[in-house]
Write a structure and sequence with these properties.
The complex is a heterodimer of chains A (192) and B (210).
Chain A (H helix, E strand, L loop, with lengths): L4 H8 L3 H22 L3 H18 L9 H19 L25 H11 L3 H12 L4 H8 L3 H18 L9 E4 L3 E5 L1
Antiparallel strand pairs in A: 1-2
Helix pairs in contact in A: 1-2, 2-3, 2-4, 3-4, 6-8, 7-8
Chain B lengths: L5 H12 L9 H10 L7 H8 L2 H22 L5 H10 L4 E2 L10 E2 L10 H25 L6 H27 L4 H22 L8
Antiparallel strand pairs in B: 1-2
The chains are: A mainly alpha (192), B mainly alpha (210).
Chain lengths: 192, 210
Amino acid sequence: MPFDQLDLKRAIAGDERAMQRLWSQHAPHIDAVVRRLCDDSELAADISQEVWMQIFRALPSYRGDSLFGTWAHRIAVNRTLNALRKIRRIAKLEVDIEDDSAMTEQDSDRTFVAESIEEAMRKLSPGARAVFVLHDIEGYTHGEIGEELGITSGGSKSQLFKARAKLRKLLVHLVDESSTVVVKGKGHVAPV
Amino acid sequence: MSHLSEEQLDQVIAAERSREQAPLNEWRTIAARAREEGLIRESQSSRWWASSQPWLQSAAAVLLLVGGIAIGRATIGLPSNAGLQSTAQASGVSVTPPASTAARVPAISASGDASFASVNDAAETLHRAVTDYERASQFLAANNTTGGNSDSLSMYLDRAAALDKIVNATESALRTAPHDPVINQYYLATMGARAATQQLVTQPVVLRGF
């Protein structure tokens, strides 16, 4: 069910059902970006709560100039990056392979590719991961990323280059001998 | 091979981008926080409805019943007096027919001219009337579906949009006067009419019985 203006008014007025419809429709995408920017699922869940509180608090300021999802997504990115800054997890921008023991539990239904890329992203430095997620997955420009992270556009490009180089190395096990990217249990994605 | 190619990495990224992911929290967790912060408010009308007497709820239900019939009859161009009176008589309530289309919500006599032995007696009668109305509505919806067409659907959609505006206005009025019985009656009648209209939108029918 699309979230219409009437629901928006009701959510602003504190109608729980309208707020739940809003959350149900947008949480998968909003929470996904939070999850990707964090390297810890528990932390991501905590930050996601803060993100949604901020979205609900800010609802009266939503003017409809952009799609609601875009507006909420921007709040999610800002809030997540601020939270990560606060806990000093984004200060270091150099690529840094971290200890594997930091791995958290994984859902059994995730695909091999999804598990692999999540694991690989955790091994990026927080800064490199943020640049990679925002640029390659969320579609931000280097200029926008620079503004979000307080770095230059060139710095963003440099971080992305390093992140991609590391991911190409970390994800090499996804390619079999015939140069095909494989998905465990689902056969091949496509030959490359 | 010690590295993925750029193209292979792009392929993996595309798969990740399109991957559906479950929310990180359950709604009840978010809702609990929102409630703590006062972002979720219990609606005034819900509070009024929950705390009101059962007989008052039944009275409101009958008001919806009679009002809905009146609106429905006016919409399909039938005279409203006979059916309205007979329905009201069946429920033991005296109903004043609307004097004009601007007064489609009928007034219920406060004189107590129907002979009830007690408040409980009246409440039981109201409850029976509501039950009969629900059963009759379900029967008509299931068995009397002739005449539905794109014109009626369009009409119902227009009505639903108009009723949404009235709901907004009455909700605003309720915030000003949350316990005012007249405002509550208008609000409940509108909500009832809107719910009925939404059902008609999903399955447009012309109820020949009314």
